[in-house]
Amino acid sequence: MKKLAFGLLIVAAISACKSNSDKKYLPIYGSKQAVTKTVDGKNVTDTIYQTIPNFKFVNQYGDTVTKKNLDGDIYIADFFFTTCPSICPIMARNMLKVYNTFKNTGDFKIISHTIDPKHDSVPVLKKYADKLGVTGSTWWFLQGKKEDTYSLAENNYLVLVKKDNSAAGGYIHAGYFVLVDKQKRVRGAYNGTDPKEVDQLIEDIKTLQTEPDEMIAQ
Amino acid sequence: MKYKVAGLISLLAVLISIVSCESEADLDFKRYYSAGSEVYQTHCQNCHGAKGDGLSALIPPLTDSLYLKNNQSNLACYLRSGLTGTITIHGKTFDDKMPAADLAPMEMAQVLTYINNSFGNKLGVITIDRVNADLKSCK
Known about the structure:
The structure holds 2 protein chains of 2 kinds.
Chain A: H1 2-22, E1 32-39, E2 42-49, E3 56-58, E4 64-66, E5 74-80, H2 88-102, E6 108-114, H3 122-132, E7 139-142, H4 146-157, H5 159-164, E8 176-180, E9 186-191, H6 195-209, H7 213-216
Parallel strand pairs in A: 5-6, 6-7
Antiparallel strand pairs in A: 1-2, 3-4, 5-8, 8-9
Helix pairs in contact in A: 2-6
Chain B: H1 2-43, H2 45-48, H3 65-70, H4 75-81, E1 87-89, E2 92-94, H5 105-116, H6 128-136
Antiparallel strand pairs in B: 1-2
Helix pairs in contact in B: 1-5, 5-6
């Protein structure tokens, strides 16, 4: 009898494990703040997560793009420049895989920021996108003030990378793909030069897409 | 009988020398090719890809045997000085700049031998002597 109970316990433990991994939840990165509100006479503590602040760039079509243009979208942000001969072609090759997987999903975008706006003008970005085979509005190549791009990268998108990467200043060139959810919260960073990490990114986007509304609503 | 043995031995010697000669050339090819694979990974693969498939219309693939065949004596010059202008690969045009690769002539011979015999190409060895000669007549 004892043996049977023990056996049951093991089965229960295994199945518990299983159901846990089924409900995969991606961590939320960035600073957190606990806020206590009074709702219906009760004190409720809520967590406010760091979100991507507003920005203003121009895409390859010459259209202005702000944070609002990404409302309702899961998106990936990365940093590149069109004349970069080292890691950028690998990143582009890997990002194309992500693009081709999700380009027909309505709630997904990629924004690639140039860190060389002097050379990468709107026409240069358009030509680059055309040659890469990118059409429509799923993948935008953004151009703006260099300091705006750097500040956004350092203070928001790459905070997660910054911690892990001791090479100061170098991480913006490190080729990370940053995953952002519909609430503009950073949910992951993946080495864009590593096909395995990019496959994980594709899986994690699928996970984010199935995230139920109550979680999204915080 | 004595002559027969001597004849047999000399025939064997000739045979052995032919076989070892062949394997010497074969060995040479293998040396070039395997070293070239390393050079490729370090200097070429980022852009041209692990399978030599290039990148969309931005970076040409290295799978056009006819183009490679017609440009064998220019390849070392392309490595040394880079490549600008428009080229046609598999009927598609490419006009982006290829940067120069900082390679020694021996590394050029190795990597060109690797490319010559990878990605579906079968174009034989490019020796160090060939590279040195080609480099002298770069346009």
